[in-house]
Amino acid sequence: MDRIAITGGARLNGTIPVSGAKNSAIKLMAASLLTDEPLRLTNMPRLADTRFLGKLLTRLGVQVTESDGPDGQQTLLHAPEIMSGFAPYDLVRQMRASFNVLGPLVARSGQAKVSLPGGCTIGARPVDLHLQALEALGAKIDLHEGYVYAQAPRGLKGAEITFPIVSVGATEHAMLAAVLADGVTVIHNAACEPELADLQDCLNAMGAKVEGAGTPTITITGVARLKGATHAVIPDRIEMGTYAVAAAMAGGEVRLTNARPGLIDALLDKLKEAGAGVEPTADGVIIRRNGQRLDSVDVETAPFPGFATDLQAQFMALMTTAKGESRIRETIFENRFMHAPELMRLGADISVSGGEARVRGVEQLEGAEVMATDLRASVSLVIAGLVARGETTVSRIYHLDRGFERLEEKLGACGAQVRRIKGDGEAEL
Ligand code: EPZ
Known about the structure:
Elements: E1 3-7, E2 12-17, H1 22-31, E3 39-42, H2 48-60, E4 63-69, E5 72-78, E6 86-87, H3 89-94, H4 102-109, E7 111-115, H5 128-136, E8 140-144, E9 147-151, E10 160-162, H6 168-178, E11 184-188, H7 194-205, E12 209-211, E13 218-221, E14 229-232, H8 237-250, E15 252-257, H9 265-274, E16 277-281, E17 284-289, E18 299-300, H10 312-319, E19 325-329, H11 339-345, E20 349-353, E21 356-360, E22 369-371, H12 375-385, E23 391-395, H13 398-403, H14 407-412, E24 417-421, E25 427-428
Parallel strand pairs: 2-15, 3-14, 6-7, 10-11, 18-19, 22-23
Antiparallel strand pairs: 1-23, 1-24, 3-5, 4-5, 7-9, 8-9, 11-13, 12-13, 15-17, 16-17, 19-21, 20-21, 24-25
Helix pairs in contact: 1-2, 1-7, 4-6, 5-6, 6-7, 8-10, 8-12, 10-12
Bound molecules: ligand EPZ.
């Protein structure tokens, strides 16, 4: 299995272009199931997760073609007809977001059989809210042997959906199903993450009538059919935030381009509070730190526009070498501190109790062998490795490949000493 080796100590200086957002791209790809015309997505990240979903969509009847066009990396998705409404356990288990094909399949062809995703290393992550939303839209839902059987032979019907808690995935799923429902759907207590507005823009370009995404109330007036469209995926705010933290950790000056800093204000405010330089630019942000040690600051994760749970692990890595004690509260997922014991292998001083971690900054981390447990946890270990004395080796990096495009190349271009070691021991850049 491949590993990443980082030799700590190099400052980062240079420019990092931010890729299209993974968590938007995979929902936009699912939207291709809703029309028999081609959907062209530009600014597409090339990631294990997008390739993986491409495979599932192909099985369902979508022709998926990746190419490099005048607008950069793009993917053309065309589903003239749905060949199968079946998403097997193996495919959904490996990538939970595959579950989001259920709604579009029922909306377009009246039935689907999709595996329940099962648990996950960061929490139980049930899908009850997804199913409640589809039932509210009139789908008949049955659960047998780990599968969801959904049927709506006469089509879905607009409905009022009130989520008891904010869920990004369930809001997106309800939106993806309701665009072809008969009548008006109103989603209350909707997630406000920027990926929702991106999905709305794409669906509207396809002829849907969606309003309010980005606010807690989304109104969808169903239409009889959708058409093809071209849509550019929004920049990845989590990738942008990750490299912002990496720059603050390693020191130096990094310019992030093709980015929207307004999407990570909560993180940038914390970086400023800790003492890093943050300078917004026309297409991104410059992050700098000139040698001085950062101050500890506390963070608590929250739905957008709060501090993103997907940046919590990276920020914890940053705090391991800050002055004083930082308290980090995780409020979205119940088990999202798996990186803490790995950071401790690098010499970090962290104690975890329930949903709170206390990080007491140390002067110096030491390189060690560590193991990635999920996507954001693995990149937090790379960030820590940037300043650890000697070499840090991160294994199980297939997690990283799911969500960070050309990570070694992007960090390496700024002077980081990061290299991939192939499973057989041969180094590859
Ligand atoms: C999305 O997951 C992201 N994934 C996650 O990023 C991100 O951490 C999360 O939103 C929060 O921002 C994708 O977009 C593919 P939720 P999602 O539904 O939609 C509970 C990454 O690293 N819940 O907003 O699954 C759930 O257990 C990933 O890129 C229910 O109880 O998150 C959690 O505690 C990790 N029932 C909370 O809601 C449900 O039916 C919020 O989860 C659904 C969710």
